[in-house]
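hey so i finally got around to running both of the ones u sent me last week. sorry it took forever, my laptop kept dying halfway thru and i had to restart like 3 times lol. anyway pasting them below in the order u listed, first the sequence line then the structure token line for each. didnt double check formatting much so if smth looks off just lmk and ill redo it

first one:
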Amino acid sequence: MPDEVSRRQFAKLAGLSAAGMASPASSVEAKPAAAPRDSGGFPQNFVWGTATSSYQVEGAVNEDGRGASIWDKFVRIPGKIEDGTTGDHANEHYHRYKEDIALVRELGCKAYRFSVAWPRVFPDGDGKPNPKGLDFYNRLVDELLKNGIEPWLTLYHWDLPQSLQDRFGGWRSTETCKIFGDYAAYVAEHLTDRVKNVFTLNESGRFVYFGYGIGIDAPGLTLPQAEVNQIRHNSALAHGLAVQALRAHGRRGTRVGPAENIDACIPAIDTPENVRAAEIALRELNAGYLNVIMTGRYTDAFLKYAGADAPKYTEADLKIISSPVDFVGLNIYSPQHYIVASDQGAGFMPLPIPKSFPHMNSDWLRVGPETIYWVPKLAAKIWKTNAIYISENGASGDDQVTQDGKIYDTDRIMYLRNYLAQLQRATTEGVPVRGYFLWSLMDNFEWVYGLNKRFGLYHVNFDTQVRTPKLSASFYRNVIAKNAAGA
């Protein structure tokens, strides 16, 4: 995938730019109460964590009864992966999970976000479960708890069983949604005695459009916009069915919510009219997934803009989709849109991003620390949630190994220091961000980039599987210890 195709800028690519939308009704103010905090730092009991996903780290794709996923097939299409690598081995986390959990403990993290590989538990997506697959996650959860680390589980991080793609067209069919609900119920029955927090689907905005719209991700399809919108609706339906399954089959106290790469809108200048315009933009540019989940309806502006390409749905669908959640997970990396007020159309205008805008070693990863301040603040107001988690945030870096064998990733430290300072600014003002999961624990298989882009706090030599802490690991450990960004 070329860098100029942003990993996060799905809304514009999906044809959902709202520059011409009708102006929606104004929202109601929501001022969440601030949580108790340590002096000068983050709130007390703030959840500090890190994250990985199954296909990106586990490897062992043909072991212990695991079925094939759409990514196992996709990575073998010539030219799809930048460096020609696959996730067949990745970090060998399937065999090295105890070593990797020790790395989480060394950071001082009290939480670890991981995903369950659906085809490891159900090789065909449905039918007979694979006990060896479930046993791996039982061992993983037990090891986390043994080390004083709270497991945060993601049900779906893109590794759809290939069988469901072959039989039903994957997320093109509501059959896949129903089967996902059954899978969620099975995971709930077997793991929520120890896992209390569950994310449903990770980044619908990415896997739907990049996988089914422009063919950059698995399964590599290029479908018409109407089908893409329908698939996005199906993903929201799958989320709702999973929430209902977790309520019905999970242990008492199980908490659940989405984890979405929200289309980030920020006021270009902090004036009341621009802030209001950014609020409208944030709602409308996320109308196809997060807003319908949180409100139970598609906005009039979204439906008008989509026109004949709007998804087909029933009131029963909307009721399922809007099943109440306990928290909202936001994956926040870069600003997608700087917004100013406009007297045209929807009342806002996205500004062009200059080519000179600073970025990390991935062109899409623009450095805009204020993003992690404004987006949770506006999201809490729009959707009246009192629990937001930053389910992903992090940066790729140059990560050169020096002659002394160390990685002095001051570029990543710069990024994290500035973003965390803005996040602390938000929590100080009472924005209900309850935790932060840094992406990623260690370098891993970074999807279409293969092994070329490194996001980890720990450097991984993929030939030897040796993990080496980068300087940023020490930085993050210090932040956690102080519970403060000024570290």
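and the second one:
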Amino acid sequence: MSVRVADPEPGIRLVTIDRPERRNALDRTTYAALTAAFEAAGADGRVGAVVLTGAGGCFTAGNDLTDFQDLETGGDSPGLTFLKALRACPKPVVAAIEGHAVGIGTTLLLHCDLAYAGDGARFRLPFTALGLSPEGGSSYLLPMVAGAKRAAELLMLGEPFTAADAASAGLVNAAVPAGAALETALAKARALAALPRVSIAATKRALRRGHDDSVARAMAEEAEVFHALRRGPDAQAAFAAFLRR
């Protein structure tokens, strides 16, 4: 299985991306498993908070580019389906990031309620270098949390950045000592799960209410452009070059 689901203590659901041999890159099977995990957590009355992390000291290297060479299209992509399930999850979601968080591995953090990154974590939004464009609502949400100029820098230049940079840009709550991200996330999840769940759910809805329609529209519009570019010659050449390394 490419996703492990566990309940390490009462009230906490731990979802772990588990493809360490691929730096936890997300293929169709993994996206489907993540979607199912978040839908199940949202419907489970025993769950008070969800923690999302990656196995082997790596969060995720982003999309598995072997899937991107497939020119087939039609309907929501597996990645978009997962992001919708993540965003729709009524339980608070806490991300724990160590190692690499690339592409959707960074943009998905915009849909988590809390996020903590180890000091050694490295983030990147490499869409333009791959002949692509922003996805996952990032063109809307990243300027909101980071400011327009910082968002343009991160999305246009696509350069790697640190956990401290991610914290200053609002992508994570804090940078913590390397190796401590999961421990920190579990502690926050424990605190959330101990609070009245109806209050937490109402607060999560209130925090998102003013942006839900705009985020949904941005995700749909981005997906249309993203997949048009994905099928184009620049992107296909970039994928082929990456896979030849």
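quick thing i noticed on the 2nd:
Strands lie at 3-9, 12-17, 49-54, 93-97, 100-102, 114-118, 122-124, 161-162, 174-176.
anyway thats it, ttyl
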